[in-house]
Each structure stands twice: as structure tokens, then as C-alpha cells.
Amino acid sequence: MAAETATLAESHTEMTEYLLPNDTNNLGRALGGVVLHWMDICGAIAAMRFANRQVVTASMDHVDFISPIDLGEVAVVEGYVFDVGRTSIDVKVDVRAENPRTDDERQTTTSFFTFVALDESGTPTAVPRLDCPTEAETELRTAARAERQAQLEAIVERLDG
Q1: Rounded to 5, what percent of the chain is helix, strand, coil?
Q2: Tens-digit pLDDT profile for the chain (161 aa)?
Q3: How far apart, in whole angstroms, are the C-alpha atoms of residue 127 and residue 138?
Q4: Whole-model pTM?
């Protein structure tokens, strides 16, 4: 049985990937699908750490590719749980690029994922409530919720426009 509560910090996940030629396009930049794959894996790990359960990807919101990741750079993929439903877990995933030769870094990609927790028979199952015991965790949750809401409102505006 899953714990009644889990913290945002318990879900925090950070992965690093070194961009090699097999994952680049003809411009020497990361393929979008490769970046999405990294993001999905990072988000799933964050959700599993939070729920102590197997999870499946239910949805991925609008993705913003802000800046490319160039051949030879390090991609840092970071995710954390910022909201939950009864069986669903919302995870914010950000990617930044680091140039290991100059220490320069920049944000490259961001999105929101929703995962569903599964029990041993593969049926959706209840997840813990999200607890944010520190001010830093509360600020991350609040910022992620606001950013997702703004993103959804912008999409609706574009559709209505």
C-alpha cells in the first residue's frame, strides 16, 4: 500500500545525457524526439519515486523547444511532481543544455506530463497526497501550477482566435 503523503522533494529527479552524433539532426542539434524521450523517462522516474508504484504516461502538454542542444553539450533533464489527482501524478520537466568546456548553460525545453499509477494487476490505483513541507517546495509547486495554467489559457486563446 502506498504512503498517505509524499513530498515534492522525494520525487525530484535529475538525469544527464551527453549529446552524441546518433541523437542529432543534420545541423548537429538534438532531435526533438530524443529530447521528448529523455523528458518522458525523467518524468516517469519522478512519478514512480513519488508513488512507489509503476506508472504509465497518460498525457504530455504543449512542449516548448526554447533553444537547441548542440552536439557535444550535456543535457540536464529535471523533473518533479507538482500536483496529484486520485490516480494521476502531474510532473513538470525542464531541460537545460550545459557546455562542459565553458560552463555556459541555458534552458532548452519544458513541458508538463501526467502519469497514472498502476497496482500489481495494471489497474489505476490511488496515489499519495502531495506534501510541500518547505518554502522552496511550496514555491516550486505554486510556480508550476501557475505556469501550466498560463500555458493552457494561451492554447485556448489561440484556438478561439
Answers
A1: 35, 40, 30
A2: 557 999 999 999 999 999 999 999 999 999 999 999 999 999 999 999 999 999 999 999 989 899 999 999 999 999 999 999 999 999 999 999 999 999 999 999 999 999 999 999 999 999 999 999 999 999 999 999 999 999 888 888 888 87
A3: 19
A4: 0.93
